[in-house]
Design brief:
By secondary structure, this protein is mostly helical. The protein is 44% helix and 0% strand.
Amino acid sequence: MAPATPVRVLDDLLVRHLGRGLDAADDGRTLVDLGIESRQVVQIVAALPLDPDVEIDFARIGRRSTLRDLRHWLAGLLGAQPGPGGAA
C-alpha cells in the first residue's frame, strides 16, 4: 500500500478535528463559518509530520481565512500543493 499523499493527510486531519466530512462546497467558507477555531488549527498543525526546522506563521491564517486558504497554508507547510476540493 502506497503512503498517503500530504493532501490526503490534511483532509483526514481536518475531518477528524471537525467531526464531519468536507467537500468542495466548503472550500469558500470561512473557518469561522465552519466552526474551526484557532486552537483546532494549532492541533492540526501539531499532528502534521513536519520537519522540525519548519517555521510556522500562524498569523497567516485568520478569522476571515477560508477552508481553501487553510488547506493551501497547511500544504505549504508540508511542501505539497492541494488541488480543488483538497484533491491533489
